[in-house]
Predict the structure.
Amino acid sequence: MSATDTTKPEHYDVIVRPIITEKATMIGETANAVVFEVAKSASKPQIKDAVEALFGVKVKAVNTAITKGKTKRFRGRPGVRSDVKKAYVALEAGSTIDVNTGL
């Protein structure tokens, strides 16, 4: 194992979980990309390093989007869902991540 293959504990703090929805699955099939929920403070280079270290793939590009939390009613009282930052990670040709199996 070389120094570039080591996973740091911070990488697990950057990537919260994969997003498995119909839209994310379509993006994965057509554009060879994977969608992750990431920490709001994570930058694109941090996300790229974390995905490359944790999954052993080459990342071509990272796009991010912040989804604002909705106002919903919970037990008759208004509440607000938390904001979520998503990372759309495009992979190099030949690289794949199977998010259904987990780490």
Q: What stands out?
A: The chain has one domain: 3-91. The chain has three helices and six strands. Residues 3-91 form a domain with the Alpha-Beta Plaits fold (CATH 3.30.70.330). The first strand starts at residue 15 and ends at 18.
